[in-house]
Each structure stands twice: as C-alpha cells, then as structure tokens.
Amino acid sequence: MRFTPLLNPSRWRTLQVSSLAVIVALLIVGIVFALSGVNPLTAYWEMLRGTLLDSRGLAEVARRMIPLLLIGAGLTLAFRAQFFNIGAEGQLLFGAMAAGAVALFLPITPLTLPLMFAAGALAGGGLALLAAWLRQRFAVNEILSTLMLNYGAFYLMLYLIGGPWKGKNVRGFMYSDEFAAGAQLPMIPNTLVHYPTLVLAILLAIALQILLTRTTLGFELRVVGENSSAAKYAGLKTSSIVTIMALITGGLAGLAGVGEVAGIHHRLLEPGQISLGYGFTAVIVAWLARGNPGLTLLTAPLMAVILAGGDVLKISLNLPFRIVDVFSGVMLLCLIASEIFITNKLVWSRAVKPTGSGGAS
Amino acid sequence: MDEILNALTRAASFGTPLLLASLGAIVCERSGVVNLGIEGMMALGALAGFAVAYSGSSLWFAVLAAALAGVAAALLHALVTMTFRANQFIAGLALTMLGLGVAGLLGKPYEGFPLSDTALEWPFTLGAGLLAIALYGVFFYTRAGLLLRSVGENPAAADVLGMNVALVRVLATAFGGALAGIAGAFLSLAYRPSWTDGMTVGLGWVAVALVIFTGWHPLKAVLGSLFFGVLYYLQFRLQGSVAVPTEVLAALPYILVIVVLAVIGARGQQGNAPESLGRPYRRGER
Amino acid sequence: MKNVLMLAAVAGLVGVGLHSSAQTSVPKSCFVYVGPVGDIGWTFAHNEARLLTEKAIPGLETKFVESVPEAQAMPTIDKLVGDGCKVVFTTSFGFMDQTLEAAKKYPDVIFAHTSGYKRAPNMATYMADFYQIYYLNGMMAAALSKTGKLGYVGAFPIPELKRHISAFALGARAVNPKATVNVKWINAWFDPVKAREAAESLISEGAEALAFTEDTATVVQTAAKKNIPVFSHYNSMYKFGPDVVVSGQLVHWEKIYIDFMKKVVAGGYNTKSLQNVDYWWLLREKAVELGAQNGMPINPKFMARLKAVSITVAGKKTNVYDRVMALNADMSSAKPTFDPYTGPIMDRNGILRVPAGKVASIGDLNSMGWVAPGVLGEIADEPAK
Question: Is the ipTM reported for this complex over the cut 0.90?
Fold first, then answer.
C-alpha cells in the first residue's frame, strides 16, 4: 500500500477528506465518552445544543473566537515566512499590559480605546520583533526565544499586578484597579462578546488575505515560504520579510490581549486567567487554515466550538475539564493525518513505482 | 562552599528530568524528527509509573511502564508524521494536548495518594549522566551514530547508501518517547512521589528549549540542564537576600537562556540543527 | 410559609428515609470551582464539603463545575441557572464581581461567594479562616526548633497569606522571642516543582520547621525526605509524612454549607435577606480544625518534645503542648477569650498596627498588607505607613 500523488486535488476532495477526518475524530472521542460513562450521542447533542443551537452558547463561541481569529490569522503569515512563533501567549500578555498602562495611567478620552489597541499592537509586535531580531542578529532559534519570552511576559505581569500596578480597591489581592468606563469595550448585551474586537478581527483576517494574495509583499512572502533559495536568487530580502511578519503576528496577538482585558476583564489580573492557552490553540487555527489568513475565519470558529463545547460538557455532563484537551488533541491529529489523503490517493498494490515529483507536502 | 555544593545538588535533582527528556529529544531530532510533544509524554510517563508503583509492583516495572507509555505516544507521533507525513510541529502540539488530557482523565483515581515505596533520585541522575556520555560516544564514534546523524542531515543520501531512513527515525522517535516517559516517572516516583494532574508544570517545554540551547549535543545537554537547574534553584535561594522582586528572579532562568544563546550565537559557536529537521522524508522526492 | 411546611415534612421524613417526596422543597445547589476537583487543596476541600452537605440535607441535589477561569464565571452561572440551580456557591475571590452581577441578573436565585466582601439581598459571603491555627502551629514550630529559624512557602503575597504568615510568626515568638519566619514565594497556587525547590532553599538556609500555603502536599513530602517537622495545610497530609507532620490546619467548609442550606430550606435565608449575611467562621464554629488529620490535633510522636519546652504565661509555668491545647480549647469554645491579633502588635518595621487592648477587626485582617516582626524575605506591597 502506498500513496500516489494527485496532480490537481479538487476542493471537493479537500472537503470530503476533512469531513471524514472530523468524523473519525468524533468516533474516537465518542469511545472516550463511552469509557467515561457518558453516552456519546448525548455528549455530542449537548455540545451542539449548548454551542451552536443556543444564543448564549453562540455568544460563548464568538467570545472565544475573537482571540483565536486574531492570533491565528497573524500566525498563518508568520509560519509562511518560516518564523515559528509559539510565543503568542506572551505577546497577548504584552498587549494586555500595554492596554492596561493606557487605561490606568493616561487620562481617559474618547481616544483611549483606539490608543489601547495601538499600544497593545505595538507591545505584542515589539516582543515578536525581539525574537526576530535575536534570530537574525544572534542566530537564536525563535522557537526557543518565543517560548522563553512567554515566561518573561507572565512574570512581568505578575510583578505589575502584585506591585506597582496593584489596585487601590482590591483589598490587597493581585489585580489592577478596574478600568474606567471609557476604557471598556462595549459588548453585545448579556454576553461577553466585545464586538468591536470581533469586527476588527474579521477585517484583519480579510486584510491579511488580501495582503497575501494581492500585494508585492504577499508575493514575496509566498516565494520565501515556498522556496527560500529561489527567493535569494530573486534578490528578495528574507530578513526584512521575516521582520514584517514578526511584527504582524505579534501585533495581532497583542490586539487579542487588548480585547481580552478591555472587553472581558476590565482590569489586569493573573496572566494565566487572561491568556487561557489561546496562544497555543491559535497555532492549530493557523495550521488548519493552511497558511491562508482568510481561512482562519473557518478554523477559528471550529476551535472555538470545541473549547465552548468542552465547557458545556463540563457543566451539563460533569465531565472532567481535561476532556477538552483530549478532544482537541484527537481532532487535530486526525485532521493533520488526513491531509495526505487530499493530495494523494491510496493505492493498495505494491507494484506501483514511485512517481517523480508532484503533490504537495 | 556548602552553598555551591547545595546549589549543584539541587540543580542535579531538578535537572534530571530535564536532562532525560532532552537527551531523548536530541536523539529523536538528530534523526530529523521534531518532537514538541514531550510535555504530554512526560505526563503519560508520570502517570503510568505512579499507577504501576501504586498497584504494588516493583519500581523497575513502574519505570518500564513509564517508558512504554512514552513509546506508545512516540509511535503515534511517528505514525502521524511519517506514514501520513503530517507536520511534525503541529503533531507534537497535538500530542502534548492529548497526553496531558489522557493522563488527566486516567489519573483521576490516583490523585492525592502517597507511594509506600518511593524511588531514590540519584539512580535517575546517575543514569541520565552516563547516558549522556554514552550517547556522545555513539553519536560521534560509532557507525550507528553516523547512521542516525546522516538520516537527520541528508536522508536522501542515506537512503541511496542503503540505509532504512524510516526505521531509523521510528526507533529514534521511540527512544525519545521512552526517555520523556522516564523523565515523568522521575517526577512521580522520586522527586515528588505522587500523581497530580498537571504535575509536569511545563518542564517538557523547558526540555524542548534545552535541546536547542545545547545545540543537539548530549554532553552540552548535561551542562544546559545544570545551568537551568542552578538558576531555577537560585530564584528561591536569592529571595530575601537580594532586593529584587521575586517575579524577576522567577523569570531569570528563562531570560538567561536566551541571553546565553545569543552570546554563543554572536561568537558563531552555536550548534546547528540537523539539516533535515522537521522535514518528512519521502523516497524519490527532490 | 410553604418552605417552613416543607421543612417540617423533611424533618419528619428523614428518620424513615423517605425523603423522595420532600425533594422539591430543597433547592438545587450548584458549586463553581476555580480549580480541578482532584487535587488536595482548596477545590478538593470544597468538593468534599459539597458531598458531606448532600448527605446532611436530605433531598439536596448538587452540581459542580470545576476549573472555571475567572472570565467564565458569568457564562457558567448562566448555564447553571438554566439547568435549574436555585442556590449558587462561587468559591474564589476572582468570581466576586461576576457573582454580584449574576445576583442582579437572577433576583430569584440565591448566591454565596467565598472570601469576598460584596453582598446583595440575594448574595451572601463566607469564609473559613485559619489564622488562629497558624498561631498555634507557630508556637509548636518554634518549640521544635533549636535556633528558632522557621520556613514558610507561600503562593502569592495576598492578605490571606500575610495574615497566616504573621500569625505563624506571632505564635513562634510567643515561645521563642528570637524566632524568625523565612518566606519564599512560588507565585503559583499549584506548582509542585517550585514548592519543592522553595522548600529546599528554606532548609538550606537553616529552617528547622516548615509551614506553607499552596495547593499541594509537596512541602510535606520534602520535609519527610529531610526529616524536618512540618505543618499540613488545608486537608490532612499526614499520610504524606506520618513522622514529620506535627499538626496543621484542616478546613470544614461543610459546616458553613450545611448551616447555610438549612437556613435556606427553613426560609430564613431567601433572596431578600442576605445583604448582611457574612460568614467569618473560625475554630469556634468548627469550620476549621487544628490537626495533623481529623481528630488528631497534634501528632503523638511530637507530644513529649512539645511537653519538654516550658513557657511562662501570665506568671504561670506551663509547657507548649498544654498551652496549645488550652488555647485551642479556648478558641474552639462558645466564648473565646484569646485572639492572636490582640494588640499591641507592631509590624516588622515597627509601626503600630493593632493598638493595645484592641483586637484586629475582620476588615483589617482581610486587607492586611503588613507582616509581623520576625518575618523575613520579600513581602510585596508592604505599606510604608
């Protein structure tokens, strides 16, 4: 049995294979449900009912989608530029801290919210830029630097809320004071959906798609991503493209952080409560979108449904919180393992000679 | 003098799981396979080891079970990334989630219990040290090491020379999984003998970073683990003796890893990643 | 009125175990937890209490949700109320504002929030605190050390911990005026690796007994390796170190939950009457207990050593063991005469915090920024005045 490449896999085939992968994942997780003593059909029905078929559930999906979409869209381009940023958690926290600085220490004006977003984008982008600079100047691998900088951001935030930025009205607990009303984002009533960030996220995902497909920079990025030696031959400066992509990916993660604190928390608090693993989940969102920022408009809601669905399982069926990790892990493994079936077909005979090039990888 | 000795003792103890996991990852990555799933494998190993020891079996069996749990996860990684040629980075992330999730679910009945027969730490530490030396020898002075490295550097050439690229990579990945599992067992059997969901607290990610930090070199991994271990201990030892906020001290080990790597990089002395790291190999391609 | 009748029905039926018919009278009660249930710390204790409450109140149906992030309290409460919860307990300080908001949003649901200070007609607050026990532990710790050097592993520098650390130090100095409490922060509620290394560094700096506030048994396990006296925290950790656990603090949240639910069932607590309901339950109410494990206030292995250390109290000679037991009995009685935070108390910088003859108020204790003399180490956010 072997895989033979298909020259022109259709979109229909992509859809078929991906759906099949999702079904396989649901079957596997179904077994986990059954072993946990819950009827899989009940579990899936509860998940569906509690997320997509219920207005409150939909709001929860939307709320989780916001940071996933922002970070995920940025990461698609970073990955294309071969900049493996796994520091979105830290960049999100930097964005949150910058927003907090504006909200807490600058006079509140009508420009406060825009300023918070700008500061957040700069802070998040700056942190990613640091990693890019370390890579270009000192050959420091960005997986290492972004991973380590996550811890740096985490402890910086703890220091601020436990020390200089600790609120006056928090009875000594580790929080900043609440942001003034002018530094809080409006929400869809009775939900936690801060819609300005949602709109911003959608617009940015579309804008990045246009940047990728319709601009010179996007063209260069695609060349660099697909073949860096060809890019060198064509005289493209890989380093400046990486720098720009680092700024974009970090900046979007920073925006996500602004949205979380200005929209949901209205204060700075323990960093783990703000980032909630979005930075890592968004890596999945980006990867599933296969390098297309526009496609994160589909993959971000998918992951958001899994996260929100996990909450439903936790509440309605009292399943342990770890079920969400199992669910995401299985879903992800099935989807990435299925990719080869899109670009290849399975041939059962041994006689087929390996073909030359073609397909994708 | 006592202080230095004590700091080194702590570094050796805390550094043991880091060294074990990073040695495993070095072997795996030297063959060209990236493994970001170490954290999940450690969690599985920690649970498997504890569960077997808790059931009354000998500690040897417990360690073996931990290694096997790691191998099982590693083989899943191999299946997904090699048979199905999925992206290794993403597969590793997925494995981390799955490992933490499965360990959390299966571990529920074992939470909050002590172990009547706990393991000693030093055999793990000594074993990890000896293994580092052995791996150094194997890597650079044996045919097997050459085989492993050539598969990671240039699988096409290795293939032409008649080496079984796939087999080497599967074995290397499984070895990495086994060591990650044992690193987990060190935590749950010796370092802090009990099982709690989340007890690996990100050490797997530190190991991922250490592999890069030490330039995929087994002996430098010993130094890297000790370096990180000393800093990790000092963040507490220095609290109260220096006028620096505790959070800054806590961030120091992570930041210094970057700084040191940058200094080494500025002097052009960094170890290089295996040439084909992270790339699936397919016969006949390119 | 209906509630009262139903309560009578419940009371009548308990004895014969036919409480199914009374089920409708007991409102469904739901618990929002901040951490996972399975650990040995805070959430574990609340969950044990939930189960005991279920047993104690016939017909009570409960539900819980674990590991709820702070941002998610509101959606979680929405869902719980939708599922028919009539009483909701939120068990973390971080849930305070959202619980208050939910209380306004659902005026016919009863809410109770742990460790906060905001209330509403349908929202009460409750807390079981350990500071008295930390004082007693401090006395024993000092008695068991030659040098008076003690160690403490803390999660975060918040008032609750400063209150505990200071009580521990005050108790220690009551036995040995030169005693010190060296504090190491791990900046996490759950991180066994950090807890281990923090404990190791305390030991290397000469600590001869350890206490801690964080959510694992790691410090006890570390002390067991080094054979150093240690005080268990929150739940019994005696089994993790039967030779080293001297005593410790145990919580009984069920005392509060059962009392609360009984009053809800009886109708005394309803959606209009909770504005001033604030439980601050201590030894007297049996919401907390001095013990290495339930029913073992002091590990017998340490009895002789503690009896051998004599102290003078109000001109009378006694020993630490007897003094601890006497104070424990006094504070556990209906009318305690002793409180660790009785003035005059200076902070470690020499500023008078509790004037002579006064006892620190609950409000003071809940917003404590200062720490007592004898406490060593970094203390974030220590007030200068």
Answer: yes
